[in-house]
Amino acid sequence: MTTRAFGLTNTRIREQLKLLEKAERTDEPLTKVLANADWSYDDLIYENSRTRLYRANFPPVLDEFRLEGQPIPMVSFFSGCGGMDLGLEAVGYHHVAAFEINELFCKTLRRNRPNWNVFGPPTHSGDVSRFDDIAEALTSLVQTPFEGLFVGGPPCQPFSIAANQRFARWSDDFKRVGFLHEKNGSLLFDFLRLIIEFRPQAFVIENVSGLRSIDNGAQLAMAVEQLQINGYHVEEPFVLNAAHYGVPQQRLRLFIIGTRGRSVFNRPVPRAESISAGSILDSGIAKLLNSETREHKAESILRYMRLDYGRRDQLGRVDRLDPSLPSKTVIAGGTGGGGRSHLHPEIPRTLSVRECARLQTFPDNYVFIGASARQFTQVGNAVPPALAAQIGRSVWESYF
Fold first, then answer.
1. Is the pLDDT of residue 161 over 60?
2. Is 156 one of the catalytic residues?
3. From the candidates 81, 106, 156, 356, which is the catalytic residue?
4. pTM for the full model?
5. Does 154 map to a domain?
């Protein structure tokens, strides 16, 4: 940083401190104090701002993954807000149906893709554990065997370290409930039942990496064995880090992939260069939908502004991102409280839903429905569309 730039930053910090201290002293909302001074939250800076250099680069555009040929039909389960579906759509798969139990997530799907067959509230249960309901809906849409793709990610909270649930009785080494979870722990096997019943040409099961280690892998091995007994060639389950595939975020996901044939699955090829968080968070977001930011109190900003790159605010349990690196994992949060986001690398505030969606490689025109906390949950639960597209492309080229 030049001497002049350093001086300007010091002047800005002094002005910023005056405004923050005024809000604390008068109990006046910080939003109002900033507005009276012709400031906004995005005018705030850290004590150490814009000192981390990086080369701007950008995630792949979804359309670059499109393949030519007869569209392959696909059905998604546990569809969430549509991250996996978007990626497969970009490759060229034909969307036959999506099953989702959460009504708000269904609203997001219908808002963005009104031509999709979305089975979920209020018109359908969307509940994969209700086999007869799902089978009845599918029977009118697909033939058996289904010459297409089934894809789904059973709710991952029971298998996630981040969920921090106490492990029941299988092992003292884990806090995760895993397959013992009363509801979600069995959804993987409910999904397997649908695969075995309708016999798609190929399937993709996606989940958190923790699924592989629950019960030392015994239950996952049981799931793979069920598929093999029923005539599927199943690849060895593998974990990919989204940051190696053009997603500006460190995100580990487990994939279980198989086919009725004996073809070898060729995994997506990692990209040579990772995408920095700063590249897609620096500008051009404020006027987009879902870009509202949280109105922090002055006391929070005073803590945040003193954090260096990559450091954590222990009280709020939020991390300042490093603009030169992929983001830390975008978090969905608990089912009750909604998601929470990291701190912007150059503005001492938490990220907006739209900024998190960019880290997940959602297109800017994809809209998330509901209260802010529920929007964060949708984005944080999703498979990054750019990663989904690369998985879908490899499945197409390997199995169809």
1. no
2. yes
3. 156
4. 0.90
5. yes
